[in-house]
Amino acid sequence: MSNYKAYCLDLDGTVYKGNTPIKEAVEFIHYLQVKGVEPFFVTNNSSMTQKQFQQKLAKMDINTETDHIVSSSIAAANYIEEHFPGKSVFMIGESGLQDALDSKQIMRTQDVAEVVVMGIDRQINYEKFAIACLSVRAGATFLSTNSDHAFPSERGFLPGNGAFTKLVEYSTGVDALFMGKPQPFMLEYIQKQFGYKKEEMVMIGDNYLTDVLTGINMGIHTVHVNSGVNRTEEVRQKVAQPTYFLESLSEWII
Ligand SMILES: [Mg+2]
């Protein structure tokens, strides 16, 4: 397997499972760091701030800089800064999205706005949906962090941001533009911010429809690891194949 400069790792199912670290992934990250390579962490989870992810990883013995943690919220804030500077923004979301917008000094309003951005919000209510729908009907740009329909919890699968986004899409007849995987915005952000060439980047993950397709959409090499949602046999049936298959990340060290 090639040597890369930017190892972009998915988090849940690749580096950890919920609050449990995946040993082989932690060792792989340490191995890269010993060689002087700081990996990137690329997650659709919009709810947490870079600082919160950093603290979560630190508990698993993974020490990293906040600017190497890229969530769909970071991608959304960058997209808004780049394409809609100075526009009013109505946000539905939690601290991860809030913090990402604040870090770019993006002004938010509680009223009908020119840009609507949605991320998971476990305090969502009718009024928030109403303002989002009124804005979109009035012509606002409609962005959403990620299209995940559901996410796992101790209680079972709970509704994800994709399900809430669907409500606004259904009511207004307007489709959202998603910032998370499988769209390549997070990888484009890393490429631009750190100045990598595509051949220097690799996307590593457990989920074909998000991780592997993100890398393929970006035009970079991809690695499927058999530690999470999709089994290797399943992924081998797909038309567009990842560059490499690994049982676990420990295989890469040897
Ligand atoms: Mg995953």
TrEMBL record:
Coiled-coil annotated spans: none
Provide the alphabetized UniProt keywords.
Answer: Hydrolase, Magnesium, Metal-binding
> Pfam families per the record?
Hydrolase_6 (PF13344), Hydrolase_like (PF13242)
SUPFAM superfamilies assigned: HAD-like
| InterPro entries found in the cross-reference section | HAD-like_sf, HAD-SF_hydro_IIA, HAD-SF_hydro_IIA_hyp1, HAD_sf
Task: Say which family it is in.
Answer: Belongs to the HAD-like hydrolase superfamily. NagD family.
Tell me what this protein is called.
TIGR01457 family HAD-type hydrolase
**What organism does the record attribute this protein to?**
Psychrobacillus mangrovi
